[in-house]
Write a structure and sequence with these properties.
With 161 residues, the chain is α/β, with parallel strands linked by helices. Helices cover 19% and strands 25% of the residues. Helix 2 (91-98) links the parallel strand 5 and strand 6 (104-108).
Length: 161
């Protein structure tokens, strides 16, 4: 397995280290941030209402549901294959809901395990393996497994600040 980088997300974004090359922030919902588009920042849609403003649809309890996946991916497909964030329990419902549309997958394990792939639809690009309780502050850490996905989103090393 090759790890291409680390992605950080938090409901308290000011806690994310300045040197982080990729920060995942919320574009809507309770923890919404004013977007600063460009490399180094990607945005999470928790309601399903922002497929053209966000890179990622968050499918988990209290956020978007699997029923939101297909219309979100359809809208996003005019731009690129969207990324769906979900945990292992929600993954089968997300895969079913996506139909035949391609999508990237950011999978939450939060137990330190990092699968290299998943069975069924969805191209695994990142795994949220380390929760805030492991990181030591209100930040979750993910490993990015896909070189192209990382290269299109992350800051180059000399720019991170």
């Amino acid at each position: 397995m090759t790890v291409h980088g680390l992605m950080w997300d938090s409901t308290t974004p000011e806690l994310i280290p300045g040197w982080a090359r990729l920060k995942a922030l919320y574009i809507n919902g309770k923890y919404a941030q004013f977007p600063r588009y460009g490399r180094g920042h990607i945005y999470i849609d928790v309601t399903g209402a922002a497929p053209m403003s966000a890179d990622i649809l968050d499918v988990e309890r209290g956020d978007a549901t699997p029923a939101t996946v297909l219309p979100w991916l359809r809208a996003r497909s005019h731009w690129d294959a969207g990324t769906i964030y979900c945990n292992r329990d929600t993954l089968p419902a997300v895969q079913d809901a996506a139909g035949d549309l391609p999508f990237h997958l950011w999978l939450a394990t939060l137990d330190g395990t990092i699968p290299e792939s998943v069975t069924g639809p969805g191209h695994l690009v990142a795994v949220q393996a380390y929760p805030a309780s492991v990181v030591g502050v209100n930040i979750d850490m993910s490993v990015v497994l896909d070189a192209a996905w990382w290269a299109g989103k992350a800051l180059p090393p000399a720019v991170a600040a």
